[in-house]
Amino acid sequence: MNRFRFSLTTVLVFGLCACAPSSAGDDKSGESTPSVPPGFELAAAKTATADRRGNDAGIPRDFTNDRSQVVDLSVEELAALSASDDIWLIDVRTDEEVANGMVAGATHIPLAAFSPGPDLIDQAKGREIVLYCRSGRRSAIAAKNLSGYLGEPVKHLTGGFNAWKEADRDTQ
């Protein structure tokens, strides 16, 4: 057991050393390395949604479970769905991101304020809830949480608002 623990510790130490950022002086291009590693925001969001008692991020509960299912929608599929009045499209990006535009007809509920529950379901007025964010990561987190609450699959836009704009679709 101790031998295994030593081997695992050794592998972890070498792995961390290999992944450590190089010093700024080693960069020949003159560009500085980012201070926050890529994906940090997503990791923080996953950690924030994991707390079932509430947390400082403002995400009050986590309903994810084995029943949680997320359905990825392409831009074309969302455009076809949004042509009807049968969906409620929710933008879970931050206020700052929404200030630069959003999908036409969407409602803004930041991820930090997004809380699956009776109030959200009442606001949907029988319409199917579809989510999106900037790239699809945060909306997938929100969709998984909502799916766990509802016990049924929830759709979100793969590629998010970036894909929507790239496809030259209507924004407001």
Automatic annotation (TrEMBL):
Signal peptide: 1-24
Protein name: Rhodanese-like domain-containing protein
Organism (species): Erythrobacter insulae
Gene3D superfamilies (UniProt xref): Rhodanese-like domain
Rhodanese domain sequence ranges: 83-169
InterPro entries registered for this protein in UniProt: GlpE_sulfurtransferase, Rhodanese-like_dom, Rhodanese-like_dom_sf
PANTHER family: FAD-DEPENDENT OXIDOREDUCTASE, PYRIDINE NUCLEOTIDE-DISULPHIDE OXIDOREDUCTASE
One Pfam short name: Rhodanese
Keywords recorded for this protein, A-Z: Signal
